């Protein structure tokens, strides 16, 4: 099993349930841990993380508000799992600027093909 990762992709988004979170775009960090069979690599093929990153950038630049970081994580996970070569994906979404005395708050979800 190979694990392909994107670590702390920094985006500015309209996200959150608190009224103040609708007033401006805030920093969000998204990490992906994508698990695919090692056979893909051994066959000379590869899994590209670029479409998943581009999708997240498109969501951020759209300006559309998302209430929950859980929703963003699930949207990202479903997009990654659209590629049938992916066995599972862990998606972490963090908001670093919520508490001054915490590095970040967030969630990590694990999605498998069974979750589609």
TrEMBL record:
Matches recorded under SMART domains: FolB
Molecular functions (GO terms): dihydroneopterin aldolase activity
Pfam family, one: FolB
Entry's Gene Ontology BP terms: folic acid-containing compound metabolic process
Dihydroneopterin aldolase/epimerase domain: residues covered: 4-111
Superkingdom, natural source: Bacteria
Record-linked InterPro entries: FolB_dom (IPR006157), GTP-CH-I_C/QueF (IPR043133)
SUPFAM superfamilies: Tetrahydrobiopterin biosynthesis enzymes-like
Transmembrane segments: none
Annotated Gene3D superfamilies: 3.30.1130.10
Protein name per UniProt: Dihydroneopterin aldolase
């Amino acid at each position: 099993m190979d694990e392909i990762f994107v670590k702390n992709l920094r985006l500015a988004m309209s996200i959150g349930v608190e009224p103040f979170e609708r007033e401006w775009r805030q920093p969000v960090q998204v990490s992906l841990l994508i698990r695919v069979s090692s056979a893909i690599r051994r066959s000379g093929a590869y899994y590209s993380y670029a479409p998943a990153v581009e999708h997240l950038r498109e969501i951020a630049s759209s300006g559309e508000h998302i209430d929950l970081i859980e929703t963003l994580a699930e949207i990202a996970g479903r997009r990654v799992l659209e590629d049938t070569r992916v066995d599972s994906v862990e998606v972490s979404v963090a908001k670093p600027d919520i508490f001054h005395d915490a590095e970040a708050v967030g969630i990590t979800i694990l999605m498998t093909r069974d979750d589609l």
